[in-house]
Amino acid sequence: MDHFLYRNGILHAEDVALTDIAARVGTPFYCYSTATLTRHYHLFQEALAGLPHMICFAVKSNSNLAVLRILGDLGAGMDVVSIGEYLRARAAGVPGERIVFSGVGKTRQEMRAALQGGIRQFNVESEPELRALSEVAVSLGLTAPIALRVNPDVDAKTHEKIATGKSENKFGIPISRAREIYAEAAALPGLDVVGIDVHIGSQLTDLAPFEAAYLKVADLTRQLRADGHDIRRLDLGGGLGIPYERSNTAPPLPIEYGDVIRRTVGDLGCEIEIEPGRLISGNAGVLVASVIWVKQGEGRDFLILDAAMNDLVRPSMYGAWHDIVPVAEPAPGVDQHPYDVVGPVCETGDTFARARPLPPLAEGDLVAFRSAGAYGAVMASEYNTRPLIPEVLVHQDHFAVIRARPSFDEILKRDTIPYWV
């Protein structure tokens, strides 16, 4: 469920008409719903009720400071994969003891900054990283709490670019070598081995891969405890999918995901950490764009929008589907027309949808891309020198711009022409 509904013939975000935001801010823009973010966070809280746990929002899915502040104020931790994301979480008011640092390529400089700023744990992905973190911690006279990310060789049955739990993926250490590497970690100075980390992929719509991975983690927990390790946290990652295409069968609910956690690792007495991103922020956002032209092609019509692949790269990068709806509610029973929905960037890949059935649309009409609150603005670029588009947050009947559109002067001033040119 989200809070983007038609009222009086116009699509609203909570109690604000998207046409009002467009008139004030201009298109294209992202719009997020506070009520939806809050509701989705509480769904995970309810799913894990009765288990010691922390929900660490995956900052990579939506890193706007206002979004992070909303979730942080609800009690969420943060899962970060760079020092930049760490600093965003801190700037949003999230204390270091609620921040988990993941990622395969942490540098010594990032380790140092996070240790000095405060950290809940590092999810360590390799032996070289393990040794480097030990050296950095010792040099600072500090102790780094760690969980080792194990690769369980489980097929998440998701898009190949967002699968992370198979043996050929770059993530984690082979679960077959876990006991050996945990023994090394325990012997290194400056480290406190607190748990196990696993994450098998993103946009999972089947619970079976989670269950297979978590059963392996449960077995490993028992083995490591028998070896003398005090395993007290299990970071089970994120990845639960959302219904991008409303006509499809809905993915599992957080409560069903919570049941998987209970029956696989719930008897181990560990604190559970999960790292949802998409399911919290995805359906909490839309991208609103204007129609520039309707162009007749050879055997097809093109709907040319002022939003482009640089604003929302998922369709171009992943072949991803987003429901596209007119902001003005179509009349019941109106005939649908197939459009190729495209942007103005000089790439054939700047295509959002092909032969998408939509009500007849004309120059100046507004459309909204649903489920655009995750991996939308965070993956945007200024390709073709197109300014990053505004982000807007709605709360009940008012809204605020939480990231402004830069001017062309601001963009150009970031470049410097050297004196010899």
- CA gyration radius, whole angstroms: 23 Å
Strand content: 15-25%
Low confidence ranges: 161-167
The CATH class label of the largest domain is: Alpha Beta
Overall helicity:
25-40%
Q: What would CATH call the homologous superfamily of the largest domain?
A: Alanine racemase
Briefly note the CATH topology name of the largest domain.
Answer: TIM Barrel
Overall SS class: alpha/beta
Count of DSSP-assigned helices: 12
Looking at the structure, what is the overall shape? globular
CATH architecture of the largest domain: Alpha-Beta Barrel
Largest sheet: 9 strands, mixed
Distance between the termini: 56 Å
Average pLDDT, to the nearest integer?
A: 94
Descriptive account of the structure:
The chain is of the alpha/beta class and 421 residues long. It has 2 domains: 159 residues, Beta Barrel (Lyase, Ornithine Decarboxylase, Chain A, domain 1); 172 residues, TIM Barrel, CATH 3.20.20. Helices cover 28% and strands 25% of the residues. It is built from 12 helices and 21 strands. The strands form 3 sheets. Strands 4, 14, 15, 16, 17, 18, 19, 20 and 21 form a 9-stranded mixed sheet that branches. Strands 5-6-7-8-9-11-12-13 form an 8-stranded parallel barrel, surrounded by 5 helices. A 3-stranded antiparallel sheet has the order 1-2-3. β8, α6 and β9 form a beta-alpha-beta unit. 46% of the residues are buried. About 2% of the residues have low confidence.
